[in-house]
Amino acid sequence: MKIAVLVKQVPDTWDPRRLDPSSGRADRAGGEQVVDEIGERALEAALAHRDRAGQTEVVVVTMGPAGARDVLRRMLAMGADRAVHVLDDTLVGADLVRTAQVIAAVLVAEAPDLVLAGNESTDGRGGVLPAMLAEHLGRPLLSGLTSIEIDDTRVSGTRTSEAGTPHVHAPLPAVVSITEQLPEARVAGLRGIMAAKRKPLAQLSTDDLGLPPAVAGTQVLTAEPRPPRAAGELVTDDGTAARRIADFLAERHLI
Q1: Strand, coil or helix: what is 85?
Q2: For 5, what's the count of Cα atoms within 13 Å in the CB-facing half-sphere?
Q3: pTM for the full predicted model
């Protein structure tokens, strides 16, 4: 079995988030760039299956700038077998449509039995890339899983919603997105870090993938910084505090 895991380099969530006013995109020049935690959890699900079943190749895939190579080395140190990095200056500012097209081309070439991804990244938070990939690949999609089980012929799991917790399944090959309710990723040990330096890490361009030149189909026209948080209203209990709080919540349709 081959499992492809999608990972992404994102700004550290502990650092302040800023928009570049000139482009309307996230400012990635300042602050530390790290691997998105949801991608780590997706890799952990793939590695856990390999630990149980064996005979599984785990390939991590990313599209991003040169610095994203560090993310892939981290994934290789955790236990992935090899990595694919799509690096092309024409992809700077690519929107979700273009991103899905490029990553789908990688997956067509790799032909994995299962594609694992997070439900949404912590920077863009689009939450639609797995569905777009499933459409490109013509594969079933199981989205937002809070648990996952993989065997030779199908993938299954649970999805939690306001209506309940259904158990869903699909035949392989398939695309799956997972949530943060799955286990945290394992820690890479010294042996894994040293081994990662010898593992294959392929670098591809859009020409390598046979994709025509294209620009993003969406554009941010304006962007403004988030206004500073205003001070809250202090309620002094003079015998009417409960009623005033209830009215406050009711006015905002919170109760």
Answers
A1: strand
A2: 33
A3: 0.85
Q: Residue 172 and residue 141: Cα distance in Å, rounded? A: 10
Task: Quickly name the fold that domain 2-204 has.
Answer: Rossmann fold (3.40.50)
86, 207 Cβ separation under 8 angstroms: no
pLDDT in tens, 127-165: 899 999 999 999 999 999 999 999 999 999 999 888 889
Predicted confidence band of residue 12 (pLDDT cuts 50, 70, 90):
confident
22-34 residue pLDDT tens: 776 777 766 788 8
Burial of residue 178 (number of CB atoms within 10 Å: 0-12, 13-18, 19+): buried
CA distances from 80 to 42, 137, 149 (A): 11, 23, 19
Q: Which uninterrupted H or E stretch holds 46?
A: helix 37-53
> Radius of gyration of the chain from Cα atoms?
21
